[in-house]
Amino acid sequence: MALDAVAFGLRRIGRGTLNAVTRLGFASRFFVAVLLNSPAAFRRIQLTLREIYFAGALSLVIILVSGLFVGMVLALQGYEVLTRYGANESLGVLVALSLVRELGPVVAGLLFASRAGSAITAEIGLMKTTEQLSAMEMMAVDPLARVVAPRFWGGLVSMPLLTALFSTLGIFGAYLVGVKLIGIDNGAFWGNMQAAVDFRRDIFNGIIKSVVFGFAVSIIAVFEGYDARPTAEGVSSATTRTVVASSLAILALDFILTVFMFRGIGV
Amino acid sequence: MPDASVDPTCPTDIAVSLRGVRYGYDRRRPILKGIDMTIPRGKLVAIMGTSGSGKTTILRLIGGQLRPQAGEITVAGREVPKLERDELFALRRRIGMLFQFGALFTDMTVFDNIAFPLREHTELPPDLIRDLVLMKLNAVGLRGAARLRPSELSGGMARRVALARAIALDPMLVMYDEPFAGLDPISLGIVGQLIRRLNDALGITSVIVTHDIYESLKIVDYIYFVSDGRIVAEGAPDVVRASSDPFVRQFVDGAPDGPVPFHYPATPLLEEFARGA
Amino acid sequence: MNRSTIDLWVGIFVAIGIAAIIFLSLRVGNLLTATNAPGYHVEAAFDNIGGLKLRAPVKAAGVVVGRVDRIQLDPKSYQAVVSMRIDQGYQFSRDTIASILTSGLLGEVYIGLDSGGDPQVLADGGRIAKTQSAVVLEKLIGQFMFDKASAGNAK
Questions:
Q1: Predicted confidence band at A119 (pLDDT cuts at 50, 70, 90)?
Q2: What is the pTM assigned to this prediction?
Q3: A44: nearest CA in chain B?
Q4: How far apart are the C-alpha atoms of A181 and A183, rounded to whole Å?
């Protein structure tokens, strides 16, 4: 009896692994196909611009507001701890480094995945369900070039811009709380910050992170949409998968990138 | 009626032919087990059968979206499964397809939907495209709906717009997937008449997949009946109406039980109840 | 949603995004003030550099005049050789003293330069002769306890 259960479990794991590997292979071929079809997306630049609008410009509100609040909370919490070491003039340093290195790319990435990533997946999935992608194929227009690639590049371009805006609003929020509300010296706030934040090590690395995250979220979103089962629950489960997979990917990539970028700290 | 023999769009006398075609989405369970079909140029042919009998699959095979596991499929003399991607796309530009429920692009207006194939595949100037789109819309009677969005259309109107889009590039072959599904009686009549008139006026070949026997008998030149993966009957409308084939009779009369059984395969009723006791 | 509106919003979005990146680079970071400022290099050897890191500031009278470029161990003398870049506008005499200092109790480690009276100045590639190593806390405590112990013995 128990042996049956074990065998059943093993078979399920085996099948699941095979499915996962097959899916990964399909996803990789899909990714290559999207890249090959990308020149078409840029020749019809209007398509990509439209997607930048839908993925990026329409995410502005949530990104800006979240950035502001994250910055303000960071300032409040940071001040409380720094005061204990008499280091409250380093508040700007704390907030800037936290945002630029980590919180900016990661939180903006997570927000982007839930707002824009899920929207992209749902849109492509619905187009698949209502046979619009099929119709395009039958009209000799490759849906990868016309529907998928512009959305991928739209997401990829939007991410770094949204991350920068998130970090900027965060620092501004910290400035409001720290300098205006709490009363830290304005000059010390900005001066210490500028001395401690290095462009190449902190800001540039943060930008690299946001590009990598944007790539991950965009490719997952378009793939799940394209691969969704053409039913209502197929699309809904694909949307959920996008958000979950993107979030996990962002956190895992963040760890890997941080190890490579910041292991030199202390040398 | 135009002389089909000088039709410039389809070079061969036989527009579409299928021979021994086998296909299954799951390789172990074929839906089509050997389909033989010949569709001459300029004719309007219906493929009929019960739901799930593989009618739409036949259309997909003709259009090259699927590859048959056996058999050959020829369109205008060219073997579809063997075509390279570019050749297949070139062929598709000469085929129009009307999908079930229209499959209009929901993010653009009716006008843009019909202009889509024109803009993608031709270098025509915007004025000429505008004229062509309005002409196609006029042919289906919806010129006034050009600025509407698909979500604002009724089912019948959406179907007609999709028809206009299918003939936008003046194809040689048009395929209709369930064009009558879900329409009110007036729209049914309109769509049926449009399909017949367009077939004759443009000299195209038309293939309809449907299970609406009543509307089909009014407009088609020939009918193929598909059941259990094979062609079980075929003929012109008069022949079909007078047929004594039990499958055809059940279809034409709309009888609930016959060669196509009413009950899904299950254990006998008494046995079922006895088990519960 | 017509084309020109979309284009407008995309333009605004991209513009403020790039502005944010520029703001972060210039005002928050040190893009202009740091790298590639014209300068010259000098070297100094220390017995112990303590917690000195790359890119640590070089200060004179508390003003940042340069950055630490490279830290290496001289295999023959077992001293730490620190190479630093000094901004072009500053001149230091040949008998300048370079010390490793800490700003505040928990602050960062930096190199402090005290200029001497020598009329000749350090040129590119020059070496600072007089150096003062970092104060290593353990050695200080050890020294203190040794002194205490020997003072006790002397009694």
A1: very high
A2: 0.79
A3: B120
A4: 6
